[in-house]
Fold Succinate dehydrogenase / fumarate reductase cytochrome b subunit.
Amino acid sequence: MTATIERGSATAPVNTPASKKTPTPKKPGGFLSSSNGKKVVMAVTGAVMVSFLVLHMLGNLKIFFGRESFNDYAHWLRTLLEPFAPYRTVLTILEIGLVLAVVLHMWAAISLSRRAGKARPVKYVAKKSQANGYATHIMRWGGVTIVLFVIWHLLDLTFGVVNPKGFDSAPADRMISGFDPSRWWVTLIYFVAVVMVGMHLRHGIWSAFQTLGWANKDRNKALRATAGLVSIVLVVGFLVPPLAITFGVVK
Ligand code: HEM
């Protein structure tokens, strides 16, 4: 969604005699209420979520080392810092951090997109709208799809509500039964959602590079390639376990 806003376009000074006579009053509010502040919020919370995704993807790959290895990993996550901290303390703190990151990311995205809408009462026409329209659609509808997917995903593999093995089962059993060949349509849902996540990430990481001020003519190619590479590695890493289970490679 950040891509819909031309850098500084809403606040760029207009060099006319009128603007000299009546300087634009400073908007009340701190850094967080400025467009730049919100973009920084998006970049930082995005980085938190990408870090989670990298760790989550690596954890999922443990299924290739056997059910026990996968279950041990799930158990380890819940018993971190025991006996100094009670069962699930660290995991709960990480989960709260992740929820906060998701909420702040969505808040900044919605408020930036509203601001862009207000600053542009007349819709863009011609070519420009196609490029911006693509990014806006990918980020806006991609974001909504990802939220819906995560709700389904939690009901499936965390709470077991829509999983054949139910809640009272080992994580590896939920995973292997969830992507059973007979449930190929579940794998298809994951496939579409993960590709959406990849497209969202590619654009989001590139936007974050711009927000951080790293983008310039010499580096843009390398930065775009980095955003693409990170997204492809995550998409492939996430898709390999469900596909391996559905195609009977992991049983
Ligand atoms: C497509 C492959 C994926 C697989 C096989 C997978 C598998 C799992 C499993 C097994 C759990 C439960 C872990 C446990 O109970 O210990 C889990 C939790 C979770 N997954 Fe995924 N996941 C995938 C993709 C994703 C994606 C793309 C996202 C985010 C966009 C995501 C977000 C989450 C979240 C937020 C949790 C809850 C974490 C927690 O509360 O500890 N997952 N996933």
Remarks:
- The pocket of protoporphyrin IX containing FE is lined by residues 56, 60, 74, 77, 91, 95, 146, 150, 153-154, 157-158, 171, 175, 190, 194, 197, 238, 241-242 (CB under 6 Å).
- Residues 34-119+129-246 form a domain with the 3 helical TM bundles of succinate and fumarate reductases fold (CATH 1.20.1300.10).
